Amino acid sequence: MFNKIMENKKILYSIIGGIAFLLVVYIGGGLYFSKHFCPGTTINGRTVGGYSEEKVKDMMMSNVDNYELTLVTREKNKETIKGKNFGLKQDWDDGVEKLLDNQNGFTWIAKLFSGDKLSTATLISYDDKKLENQLDSLACMQKENQKEPVNARISEYTPGKGFTVLAEEDGNTIDKDKLLKKVKETVDKTEDTLNLEKAEVYVEPKVKKEDSKLKNSVKKLNKCVKSKITLKSGSQVETVDLNNFKDWLTIDDNENPSVDEAKLAAYVDTLSKKYTTFGKPKQLKTSYGPVVTIGNSHYGWKVDKAQEIKQLREDILSGKNVTRDLNYSVKAASHDGNDYGDSYVEINLTAQKLFVIKGGSNVFESDIVTGNVSKGNGTPAGVFGVTYATRDAVLKGDNYASHVSYWMPFNGNIGMHDATWRNKFGGIIYKTSGSHGCVNLPLGSAQTVFGYVSKGFPVLVYELPGTERGLSAADQAKVNDVVNTINAIGAVTLQSEPAIATARGKYEALPAQAKGQVTNYAKLQQAEASLATLKQPH
Q1: Could you write out the DSSP letters of every residue in 473-527?
Q2: When comparing pLDDT for 16 and 369, which is higher?
Q3: Could you tell me which residue, 399 or 343, shows the higher pLDDT?
């Protein structure tokens, strides 16, 4: 019994001793870890269990002194910058001390199973400019090593596929400001690696292939490719379809299909050159037989380029089949053959003759008097369209105002009208006694012509040597006599007055159409002027 009691006492003493030992160990550990970090503790990701404040600082100091930061690029390339190259150094505060003070050392046993993950600002400093220079020197920052990102975009037209969305391209251009910010954050934590992809420092494409506007634009473009425009000009036809405009299609600022203005304008310019006849010389088979070429053309078809560009753009974007005429700002009678067609007024200035051609047949002709060539008022040759036709007009000039019953202008203020103040037409009256530029007609002729013409009716005016209507033999003899009489005046003296008066009288007695044939009329005028000077008192 006694032995058993003694054995139990030993066990009790052992238990008490063990408890005492454990208590001493626990208390000793608690006291130790009041000055050291508990097991399993990390600061800023680094293990510091059992480290005193000084040892932690020494570790941090060592980290700073030997600090290197490795940057991993998008291509998995690695580049390193060293802290010593940008003046990295440690600046202490009480952060580590506070972490240690806030720790309960007597919880060290629990920390064996679940350590604390602590963090504190690692107070470091460095030269910002040197750090920036270090980054600028990296290979990944060199322009020749960088590729700009490419936005998602619309492909060129591909047969069988149409227009599609091309995916964006990331490139590897780095945003320097973002990189500098991320590097500073990493250095401040003295972390040794920075993945540039994860740090999101790359310049990213602004438009991705999932962009709904881009997809919608492709859908609209593929509608446009169905357009087919048939342009008619008389018997000639121009077809504008995908073969023409597939390279013209673009997208505007609002992501809507548009047409390249320059390419569209260039195409319309080719149409204009082909179908515009306005301003181009005209060929006319005259009523006298020969074919003449008439320049000074103010008649014909003129493609309205601005309107055609506008409408063709609309037609292309419509996605429909369209058949229409070309747009013209000036129109003529016919697209095929001569643009003036087979109905027109023909005026032969040389023969002083007017013809009305209707449906290819000569339906009327008349003698006329055109502009006075001796006074510089000759009627211009050319091709024109009647501006308008009206009754009872008053024609006004610097020193005249004449009423006419029929007024048909075709070249500015030059036109066809009756001239009741004349009793003769045709011949060579126009050379010395012509109009101010208009085409004078007998009243009946003007009335007839008025019945045929209207706005735009073609008027072709030309000269045709060899169609002059000459003088009679008697009138030609009178002209020859006048020429000889003028030549006989000789040197002008006061005694020349009778001879000069005789020459003037014979000239004035000539028929109007004959006066233009007096080739030395200027000599008579000069003799009269010289005589007048001699007769002035001295």
Answers
A1: HHHHHHHHHHHHHHHTT-S--GGGHHHHHHHHHHHHTS-HHHHTT-TTHHHHHHH
A2: 369
A3: 343
C-alpha to C-alpha distances, 472 to 110, 328, 469, 478, nearest whole angstrom: 145, 51, 10, 10
* The predicted structure's pLDDT at residue 76: 94
Q: Rounded mean pLDDT of the chain?
A: 88
- Condensed to tens digits (0 to 9), the pLDDT of residues 433-463 reads 999 999 999 999 999 999 999 999 999 999 9
Rounded to two decimals, the pTM is 0.60
Residues 507-519: tens digit of each pLDDT: 999 887 677 678 7
CB neighbour class for 450 (10 Å; exposed up to 12, middle 13-18, buried from 19):
buried
d(CA 204, CA 197): 11
247: tokens are: 């390279």
The pLDDT tens digits of the residues spanning 101-144 come to 777 767 777 667 777 787 666 567 788 999 999 999 999 999 99
| Alpha carbons 465 and 349: distance in angstroms, whole number | 10
- What integer pLDDT is reported at residue 3 of this predicted model? 66
Number of neighbours of residue 123 by Cβ within 10 angstroms: 13
What count of other Cβ atoms lies within 10 Å of the Cβ of residue 232? 13
Q: What is the mean pLDDT of residues 55-60?
A: 67
Closest of 382, 166, 140, 182 to residue 278, by C-alpha:
382
Strand 414-418, strand 439-441: pairing: parallel
For the record, the structure tokens of 433 come out as: 């006694």
Work out the average pLDDT over 283-300.
Answer: 94
pLDDT the model gives residue 121: 62
CA dist., res. 384 & res. 427, Å (int): 24
3-class DSSP state of 228: strand
Helix (H, G, I), strand (E, B) or coil at 336: coil
CA–CA gap between residue 19 and residue 96 (Å, rounded): 34
* Helices assigned H by DSSP within 166-303: 176-188, 196-199, 212-224, 242-245, 261-275
Q: pLDDT at position 227, please? A: 92
The C-alpha atoms of residue 187 and residue 245 are separated, in whole angstroms, by: 57
In angstroms, the Cα distances linking 109 to 33, 49, 100, 307, 328 are 10, 12, 16, 91, 99
Region of residue 263 (phi > 0: left; psi between -120 and 50: alpha; otherwise: beta): alpha
Cα separation of the two ends of the chain = 190
Residue reference for tokens 């991993």: 72
Q: Are strands 89-90 and 257-259 parallel, antiparallel or unpaired?
A: unpaired
Mean pLDDT of 170-184: 94
d(CA 298, CA 361): 24
**Angle, nearest 10°, between helix axes 128-136 and 176-188?**
120
Q: Give the containing element (helix H, strand E) for 193.
A: strand 193-195
Distance between CA 395 and CA 440 in Å, rounded? 12
* CA-to-CA dists, residue 484 to 89, 103, 429, 465, 519, angstroms: 124, 143, 22, 27, 11
Residue 124 near residue 188 (C-beta atoms within 8 A): yes
Q: How far apart are CA 183 and CA 142, in angstroms?
A: 17
